[in-house]
Amino acid sequence: MAKLTNEMKDVLKVVGKGGTVVHLTTCSADGKPNIVGERFVIHFKDEYILIADMFAQKTKVNLNENEIGAISIAHPVKGHTWVFRGPCTIIQHGHPDSMVWQGLRAGDVLAEWGDWAEKEPPSEVPPDIRPPKLVQRGVIALKVDEVYSWSPEEAGKKIL
């Protein structure tokens, strides 16, 4: 297990109706990848990254077959570039609050991050980036096991 640095947490705390763009990559059992771009992202504690589950149909299928995923980030303002890799799950509304996955309790996650659309966007998000009211089905959680850089100087280097 890798622990996110304060710098990583700072970049991953852009919540609300826009902000940091991350790409979540999952892979089916037969090797077919799926990549989705997401804006609703946050760190949780020291070792998890959460993404709102709004349009994750192929992601759900892949995670049922293969729980390993990767999240890449290229922050448009802060200039940080990382890839986070580890097991993923989807914590949906309706799961028992007592459900625990990789040390993460469903009730804790959904209580804080169960409705992303209510969060206020950070000041760095341009006013024209405002998606319509979306229906959040739950939260995709990645437990960070490894972190890689893909900055030009350290591309592919494991840093955590």
TrEMBL record:
Top-level taxon of origin: Bacteria
Q: Which InterPro entries match?
A: Pyridox_Oxase_N, Split_barrel_FMN-bd
Domain (Pyridoxamine 5'-phosphate oxidase N-terminal): residue spans on this chain:
18-150
Q: What is this protein called?
A: Pyridoxamine 5'-phosphate oxidase N-terminal domain-containing protein
Q: Which organism is it from?
A: Candidatus Hakubella thermalkaliphila
